[in-house]
Amino acid sequence: MGTYPSPRDPPSPRPAGARRAVGGGRPCPGAAPAPSAAGWPRAAGAGGGTKGCVGIAGKESPPRVTLPWAEAGRADGEPTSVSPKKHLPSLAASRAAGAARVPKRSARGKSVAIAYESAQGDGAEEGAPEPKRPKWEPRNWRQQLERIREMRSSRDAPVDRMGVEKCYDSSAPPQVMRYQVLLSLMLSSQTKDEVTSAAMLRLRQRGLTVDSILQMDDVTLGEIIYPVGFWRNKVKYIKQTTAILKQKYGGDIPSTVEELVKLPGVGPKMAHLAMHIAWNNVSGIGVDTHVHRITNRLKWVKKETRSPEETRVALEDWLPRDLWREINWLLVGFGQQTCLPVNPRCRECLNQDICPAAKRR
């Protein structure tokens, strides 16, 4: 049985390397006073006697024992004995012990770089460009195009005989020739090729130049171009545009689409066709009512378009550029002969089995 140090005995220093006793209950009377600091929990009761202390519940507490190093006592006056009952360290002591073993970490968070695996596998090089997604293309469009070419091989549609490319004087000086191309395009809007060709022939018989139009009065000009569609508006536009060409371009026509569309009565279709025919420069697709109608029937646009300009943008998004030159001539003649606006001749069309709009009877 161990002994308790007398309160009168002076405290002895703890041997070097000895560990402090932890746990334990309240000491019995006559034992050294135990402070409540440093996480020493107190028992619920206290008592006397040599066998043990009696708690409030009347039970005898187990006797206290002295640890091997406790013979010398404690220098700080803390108890040197613990109860033999099972002991768990207090929360405060555990935290203190843990704090002594684990270095403090900064409360301020640190950014951690995370590397993700390449979606292209281990063999992908850093900085390699992502593969381009294939452009949208209409179904069967190449086969449809080849069949339209076959149907247009005879070149006997009105556009082949009386289109804009047949209306100007090919023997005229280049500047005069380009002016005639522009005027024929202005007259062709909402007008059949036969009517446009006849009006251009009458104008050429009077000497169709910038100066001759400026010297002509509006009434005479109207009588010459009648019955083209919207002839009164076209008289006004022709006189205004011709004056601008004389003053700003020296009698020639602009060489860019941006400048052409600024002229009165000149729209995007006319501008792109003028660039193609007059300047031999394919700047875009000329889309008129025929091209607009047929490309929507063939589903050559992602979604249905409501205007020729919308159709032009949709076509240029996927159609190879080397086909832009022929597509207007090809589809205009096809629309004049086979794919008519009303009652299209689907039975005569070679695309009847692969055309989404074909009438199969």
What proportion of the residues is helical, as a percent range? 25-40%
The strand count comes to 2
Terminus-to-terminus distance? 117 Å
Give unreliable regions as ranges.
Answer: 21-25, 34-58, 69-87, 112-124
What is the class of the domain at 169-277 in the CATH system? Answer: Mainly Alpha
Could you say which structural class the secondary elements and strand pairing correspond to?
mainly alpha
Measured on Cα atoms, how large is the radius of gyration?
51 Å
Order of helices and strands: EEHHHHHHHHHHHHH
Average pLDDT value? 79
Lateral strand order in the biggest sheet: 1-2
Q: Any idea what the CATH superfamily of the domain at 169-277 is called?
A: Hypothetical protein, domain 2
State which percent range the strand residues make up.
under 5%
Give the biggest beta sheet: 2 strands, antiparallel
Discrete helix count: 13
Return the CATH topology of the domain at 169-277.
Endonuclease III, domain 1
For this entry, give a set of tags.
37% helix; 361 residues; mainly alpha; oxidized pyrimidine nucleobase lesion DNA N-glycosylase activity; two-stranded antiparallel sheet; 2 strands; globular; Endonuclease III, domain 1; Endonuclease3_FeS-loop_motif; Endonuclease III-like protein 1; Endonuclease Iii, domain 2
